[in-house]
Design a protein that fits this description.
With 254 residues, the chain is of the alpha/beta class. Helix content is 40%, strand content 24%. Strand 7 (165-169), helix 7 and strand 8 (195-199) form a beta-alpha-beta unit. Bound molecules: adenosine-5'-diphosphate (ADP) and magnesium ion.
Length: 254
């Protein structure tokens, strides 16, 4: 089974309950969007799933293993990949070389760059570049990419590790509307081959990609449902959409 099953997950920071999840389940090949106001515990959830944060209690079962007992490396080996909020690309290397370094390998950076690519590896890099909007910039220095393209490069680098479950935290942050839309299409396409948990704030983006949505609030699962159910849920409007709409209104007002 390739589904993720989280149960009774508790994380506290100095007595403050950041996460208190009863049950959270993601099916194989599902694209799940997690929303919720700032401080709801969204990033903490991903931190637990990738082994960065240890919960006080609870289990997160994936492929018959409990992620809360594994190291970050073991979790990566198990097929869970994480795209972090801040891009960490080698700016003085080309996009292609960055992708080459991302291919699963035990070689160091220098040895990897000197290594002659096998035919299959090159084709795979080109295929992933195609799917992440990078096909035309493979020879460009990563440092000269736009903010959006850097995010896509990071997504491509994680995809090259071929994760079964991909965790993505606020992929559209800081992107232009056009980049945001492209990112939505990209994630939907990449989700065909794997499970994905996407955390996002931008409601238009959520609407674009969402199937099932989980709403977190004060560390708890407030509700789950499709976009219509979420948008029309009074509790969600109260805790989240209401405040988001107020923000939009006040922005319009100046
Ligand atoms: P979200 O991603 O939904 O905005 P987070 O998961 O980042 O929320 O944070 C949830 C709560 O836990 C917040 O109140 C945050 O301040 C707190 N928190 C997160 N990480 C830490 C930490 N390492 N130490 C102390 N408090 C933290
Ligand atoms: Mg966060």
């Amino acid at each position: 089974m390739e589904n993720l099953y989280v149960q009774k997950l508790n994380v506290s920071f100095d007595g403050f309950k950041a996460l208190d999840i009863d049950i959270f389940e993601v099916q194989q090949n599902e694209l799940r969007v997690v929303i919720g106001p700032n401080g709801a515990g969204k990033t903490t959830l991903l931190d637990v799933l990738c082994g960065k944060t240890r919960p006080d209690e609870g289990t997160a079962i994936f492929r018959d293993r409990d992620l809360t007992k594994l190291s970050e490396d073991e979790i990566v080996s198990l097929g869970i990949g994480r795209k972090f909020q801040a891009p960490t690309v080698f700016t003085s290397l080309s996009v292609f070389d960055n992708l080459m370094l991302a291919i699963k390998t035990d070689r160091g950076v220098f040895a990897s760059l000197m290594h002659r690519l096998q035919r299959g590896e090159r084709r795979r890099i080109e295929e992933v570049a195609e799917r992440t909007g990078l096909a035309d910039v493979l020879d460009v220095l990563a440092g000269t990419l736009s903010h959006g393209q850097k995010q896509w490069l990071e997504i491509a680098m994680v995809i090259l590790q071929d994760p079964t479950l991909l965790l993505v935290d606020e992929p559209a942050a800081g992107m232009s509307d056009e980049e945001t839309y492209k990112t939505g299409e990209m994630l939907q396409n990449l989700a065909k081959d794997r499970s994905m948990i996407v955390i996002e704030h931008d409601m238009e983006f959520v609407r674009q990609i969402a199937r099932k949505v989980t709403v977190l609030h004060e560390g708890r699962v407030l509700m789950e449902g499709n976009m219509d159910e979420v948008q029309n849920d009074p509790r969600v409007i109260e805790c989240y959409l209401g405040s988001a709409m107020h923000r939009e209104e006040s922005n319009v007002a100046g």
